[in-house]
Amino acid sequence: xxxxxxxxxxxxxxxxxxxxxxxxxxxxxxxxxxxxxxxxxxxxxxxxxxxxxxxxxxxxxxxxxxxxxxxxxxxxxxxxxxxxxxxxxxxxxxxxxxxxxxxxxxxxxxxxxxxxxxxxxxxxxxxxxxxxxxxxxxxxxxxxxxxxxxxxxxxxxxxxxxxxxxxxxxxxxxxxxxxxxxxxxxxxxxxxxxxxxxxxxxxxxxxxxxxxxxxxxxxxxxxxxxxxxxxxxxxxxxxxxxxxxxxxxxxxxxxxxxxxxxxxxxxxxxxxxxxxxxxxxxxxxxxxxxxxxxxxxxxxxxxxxxxxxxxxxxxxxxxxxx
Length: 322
What we know:
Blueprint: E1 3-5, H1 7-20, E2 24-28, H2 35-39, E3 46-50, H3 59-67, E4 71-74, E5 81-85, E6 88-92, H4 98-101, E7 114-117, H5 122-134, E8 136-137, H6 140-160, E9 168-169, H7 170-176, E10 184-190, H8 195-212, E11 216-220, E12 231-238, E13 246-252, E14 259-261, E15 264-272, E16 274-275, E17 278-279, H9 283-299, E18 307-311
Parallel strand pairs: 2-3, 3-4, 9-17, 10-12
Antiparallel strand pairs: 1-7, 2-5, 4-8, 5-6, 6-7, 10-18, 11-15, 12-13, 13-15, 14-15, 16-17
Helix pairs in contact: 3-6
């Protein structure tokens, strides 16, 4: 009969099962520091599939497992938490991390729910086998890329600690703590006016929303390197008709990959309201940022492409100019 466990209870059950029979097949998305040691994992009778490149797995832990002889593969998009350990199998919500399994280094009091079977449940075995078949060998380049994404996630987490119910105006934050906006950019461009171009972007928007949800929209055919693959974007858009420049916040994530429809390349971005404890909610803050962008463009006019992306810190010197 299946048993239901929270994170700490699952950890204990898996430790006991692996101690009795040191074999494991685990398809668990995210791995934190010390997870393999906590469970006692080692040797080539242990197989792990993880989501290495999504930014949620500590690459140092993957290196550690490989050094211990564990067979490790990675699969983009993996979000499962299941496995076969010793004589038992499990399925649930717990990642292999301090937060998912409980422990002294846990940063959040997550309420996890897991189900443990006293046998090898065939559906779990089948799902693991499919994930393992789809998985790719871990290369040195994968570890390097994962480290960059892990570092960015850690930086974002540190910034998130600043978030309050009343975000600081972005214009103020740019002046007082510019170091917090290292991964923040601006995009300034003219809104499209040609019907065919508008139809093309609408097709891209619809596909982005299908893939990533209603908060997603696209930039269209920006040259490689112009837009950040990861980071926040303060979006300044000159409207088709006269009026104030539109102002929005987006975040670019590597999990929302660029895609093509025909010969058109689209770059998805997710709408957000604040980051690093700052936002652009007030009318006054929005106007200060618009004025700064106008002052910037007088000194650095757009070229024939009528679009540019740059570091948001470049606007700081133009804030509140007379």
